């Protein structure tokens, strides 16, 4: 798998290149946006890791030009942690946005997940009955009232809503949300569903999350 890193900080760039090579990837490193854009147009990369603040050509403009010609996964890796920056990056076509300082293990996991699933452009918002989820703003409301969720709870609800009406097994949920093989001795999925129900369904007469005995879980307006 060939990956291009566009990163002007020498320490970060060299660290990423070394770590990804040790994990079996073929890696090129560009120090400027202009050089990185040239390499994207001249080579067949499977994924680009892109900084925002680059000399000559900022990451925003780099991804805008990439999207005019190529459709390949792009992960922003930036010190800019404002939610509006994240929203901007995703709206420009990024597949993920990771904030510095970062965990290399988490970055490599996100890379594997993106490469495994391929390029998927999802909806920004989902709605089931009076439950609404905004992916970019990481915001969930029901009946107009905002609901605070942990990161895993948000990922779980996002999965259930984008697959609304489908029955998802515990194995499917564990793989998508925790990137793990489901162990029958582990009740992590059941515990997470219980906590999610307490926040999303408990205060409402109309329940949206259903348990399908011996199979898994489903979210639907018909629940």
From TrEMBL:
Superkingdom: Bacteria
Key words of the record: DNA-binding, Phosphoprotein, Transcription, Transcription regulation, Two-component regulatory system
Record's keyword annotation contains Phosphoprotein: yes
InterPro entries the UniProt entry points to: CheY-like_superfamily (IPR011006), CusR-like (IPR006291), OmpR/PhoB-type_DNA-bd (IPR001867), Sig_transdc_resp-reg_receiver (IPR001789), WalR-like (IPR039420), WH-like_DNA-bd_sf (IPR036388)
Residue ranges of domain Response regulatory in the record: 2-115
GO molecular function: phosphorelay response regulator activity; transcription cis-regulatory region binding
GO BP terms: regulation of DNA-templated transcription
Residues carrying 4-aspartylphosphate: 51
Any matching Pfam family: Trans_reg_C
UniProt cross-references to NCBIfam families, sorted A to Z: cztR_silR_copR
UniProt xrefs under PANTHER family: REGULATOR OF RPOS (PTHR48111), TRANSCRIPTIONAL REGULATORY PROTEIN CUSR-RELATED (PTHR48111:SF41)
Entry-linked CDD domains: REC_OmpR_CusR-like, trans_reg_C
Residues covered by the OmpR/PhoB-type domain: 123-221
Tagged with keyword Thylakoid: no
The protein, known as: Two-component system copper resistance phosphate regulon response regulator CusR
Residues within the DNA-binding region(s): 123-221
GO CC term (a single one): protein-DNA complex
PROSITE patterns on file: OMPR_PHOB, RESPONSE_REGULATORY
């Amino acid at each position: 798998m060939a990956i291009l890193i566009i990163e002007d900080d020498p320490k970060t760039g060299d660290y990423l290149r070394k770590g990804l090579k040790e994990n079996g990837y073929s890696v090129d490193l560009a120090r400027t946006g202009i050089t990185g854009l040239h390499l994207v147009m001249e080579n067949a990369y499977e994924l680009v890791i892109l900084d925002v603040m680059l000399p000559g050509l900022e990451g925003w403009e780099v991804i805008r030009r990439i999207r005019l010609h190529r459709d390949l996964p792009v992960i922003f890796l930036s010190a800019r942690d404002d939610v509006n920056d994240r929203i901007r990056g995703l709206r420009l076509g990024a597949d993920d946005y990771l904030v510095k300082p970062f965990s290399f293990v988490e970055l490599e996991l996100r890379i594997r997940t993106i490469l495994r699933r391929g390029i998927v452009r999802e909806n920004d918002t989902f709605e089931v009955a009076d439950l609404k989820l905004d992916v970019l703003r990481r915001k969930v409301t029901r009946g107009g009232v905002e609901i605070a969720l942990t990161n895993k709870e948000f990922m779980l609800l996002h999965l259930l809503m984008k697959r609304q009406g489908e029955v998802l097994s515990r194995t499917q949920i564990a793989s998508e949300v925790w990137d793990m093989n489901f162990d029958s001795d582990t009740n992590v999925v059941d515990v997470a569903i219980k906590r999610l129900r307490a926040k999303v369904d408990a205060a409402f007469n109309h329940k949206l999350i259903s348990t399908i005995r011996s199979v898994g879980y489903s979210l639907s307006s018909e629940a």
